[in-house]
């Protein structure tokens, strides 16, 4: 994925988390129930995406103590 795609997905994940926190995670209508995305999974995805975006903004991974060839 590109940094733009990761940033866009991060925005969507943050919006999903906010929706769950403000409107709840479960919905029950008569005998039917619906559960929105799992909040714990969204937080894990958010952390992974944030790390990828931060790494891309820094210019990639850091290599220390490498031996030049």
Structural class, by secondary structure, is mainly alpha
Unreliable stretches (pLDDT < 50, length at least 5) are none
User: Percent helix among the residues?
Assistant: 55-70%
Major sheet attributes: 2 strands, antiparallel
Tally of contiguous helical segments: 2
Instruction: Work out the strand percent.
Output: 5-15%
Give the distance, in angstroms, between the N- and C-terminal Cα atoms. 30 Å
Tell me the Rg in angstroms: 18 Å
Number of domains: 1
Q: What order do the strands of the largest sheet run in, or round the barrel if closed?
A: 1-2
Quaternary form? single chain
- Rough outline: elongated
Q: Order of helices and strands, N to C?
A: HEEH
Structure description:
The chain has two helices and two strands. The chain has 69 residues and is mainly alpha-helical. It has one domain. Strands 1-2 form a two-stranded antiparallel sheet. The chain starts with a helix and ends in an 11-residue tail after the last helix. The model has no long low-confidence stretch (mean pLDDT 84).
